[in-house]
Amino acid sequence: MNAKPLGPIPPGFATLDGELAIGGLTASALASGGTPCFAYSRSMIEARMAALRAVMPERISIHYAIKANSFSPILELMSQLCDGLDIASGAELAMALAAGAQAARISFAGPGKTDAELEAAISAGVTLNLESEGEAERALACAERLGARPRLAIRVNPDFDLRGSGMKMGGGARPFGVDAERVPALARRIIAAGCEWRGLHIFAGSQALDAEAVIAAQGATLDLAARLAEEIGAPLPALNLGGGFGIPYFAGDIPLDIGRVGEALAGRCAALPPALAGAELAIELGRYLVGEAGVYLTRIVDRKESRGETFLVTDGGLHHQLAASGNFGTVVRRNYPLAIATRFDAEATEVANVVGCLCTPLDRLAERAALPRAEVGDLVAVFCAGAYGASASPADFLGHGRAREMLV
Amino acid sequence: MNAKPLGPIPPGFATLDGELAIGGLTASALASGGTPCFAYSRSMIEARMAALRAVMPERISIHYAIKANSFSPILELMSQLCDGLDIASGAELAMALAAGAQAARISFAGPGKTDAELEAAISAGVTLNLESEGEAERALACAERLGARPRLAIRVNPDFDLRGSGMKMGGGARPFGVDAERVPALARRIIAAGCEWRGLHIFAGSQALDAEAVIAAQGATLDLAARLAEEIGAPLPALNLGGGFGIPYFAGDIPLDIGRVGEALAGRCAALPPALAGAELAIELGRYLVGEAGVYLTRIVDRKESRGETFLVTDGGLHHQLAASGNFGTVVRRNYPLAIATRFDAEATEVANVVGCLCTPLDRLAERAALPRAEVGDLVAVFCAGAYGASASPADFLGHGRAREMLV
Fold this sequence. Notes:
Lyase, Ornithine Decarboxylase, Chain A, domain 1, 8-stranded mixed sheet, alpha/beta
């Protein structure tokens, strides 16, 4: 059986007593409270933030998009490490406030905000990134009912996208934001209504690994923002440049060169047009900050052969790892990085399929992976599990429920 | 903008005061307790069961696979209407027992059963469909620890699949069941160990709409079961023939002709080989029994235009309707059946995209659908939401949580 390549294991994981170790604890120790579980490495998140701060110009704020991972200890950590938290629902607003984030450093984007969500956000004093003229009118009406002065920004649907991004969020017709050409009129309406004008949010795409593509999108974003500020006729107080920084999931993926991105952004920051000179500039990242720092640990419950293939059946699965199973936003199923955590220093000696415990052929964690021989009781680690794992998987499928999570 | 076809609305839904009505209640009335919500029609489930009983030979038992929808009022109803409940986890065991199902009418299939799940199942007295020789040994060890006589069946990985099925569960190398050629040895081992021998479970695929394919798979299943029973050297006490009955989701899908399936099965039942003559014969259905009886109702929160396209943004989305969004087990995204529930009798007058409230381009409920013009406050109905909707979607994404469910 020919092996299919596994994705690259992110750098920074240690080996202890032959096992994968996170935060100084072996996989066995981490799993001792029960499997499946997610372990997130505090030091890897801190190191990622430090590396990013080191290359980004000082005037660029770094925001955390909490949808990537809203486990409360992660939120508490990120509200300390980052300059702002970006939320996408009323529930995430409550989470961000509970984690101790200041309302003034929270912004709320996302189509389909209900009146109840708009009211909660305006009452709390967070910035709303308006997604349409209709939402703007609803927000103004809410603010009037509440007797509050809302902090309003406009999310722009740019007239370009982020080349090579895993998910395009801008360009063409989109459910997100206001088409760039209609933004100036809406901004003037908001300013005239006496709201606190918080500028623009321009998000062109996500999960890009090509620095040149990110640089081009950021450049186009700054150009568009400057043009819109001119047309609005007021300097921009703030500009969220979006994110789009990807992480390597699959064999052949090359990590994004953030040094080049930071250098290009510094160059742009040194020569900002007047309309942007006073703007708070932010990038908004989720996956890039926490994705590689998380591991999903699941125990092998059965080892079986079927017509020449080996199946390692685990007690976890797509109910916690929908994206790793290949069923979320991907067309072609490829293997995430994965290892036998309890034999982390062992050589690969066989080719095996790693599957979850759900009674569906969709529940595959790795296809034809070259692995050391593993037995019932061994632990499997799925890497890149820090973002869009626990938060974006159907945990209730077959009644299993959420996996335990730990920040270590 | 050219319209993309919507899937066919299942027959049996009524119009009341111009609105979609379920169980005599309008969509507005159903949604008055809050949106998004799922409404399941008791009478449609009962009618489906009655239609099935009418065409199936009397000696065929009908089991409900609760993974399709485990909402507790549905489980109570199905435990009354069906002859057995099929479960796939320890959590589902607890749900089935709580719904009042007798343990003797419950069977538990699924790879990756943990020791704790095996113990709970053996203690309760439910039938275990063993997925491997390794699981068989663990079950025997559990039974010995408990001092109990386990009820054991073997799930067979057949040497054929269900032609035209949406998901193949058999044929070739599979994580499910024991390869047919190794089943006799394992069955003899179980019988010799003094267990209660409960026969075979042979599941070749799911979501098939072609009666000839289902008939062929059932025929092959009966042939294989008879051959295996001969080789085992004992008559078969029970045979679960699996299911695989599909429902139409997409434009052009033709409903399965269950009359032909029932007729063919009656023919086979009239001439069973001696090894099967005394067997309880069952089919196991999930989606087919409840899928078309459920509707997901979500309210339009925003109506917006972007570069010539109209977007209806709802307060629901893929966190409750992962499959309808095209992100679960499908390669090409096609539209589910969908309607403006509050304008159910109105003609289509525009082409619009219906999207959810999540901040991801994956969150689409309908692409370029021909619909009557809808406004903020109108309700959207997504049909075929009775199976693998609430139970198989990432409800916690963005912190939204589960939708309200009702059996009406």
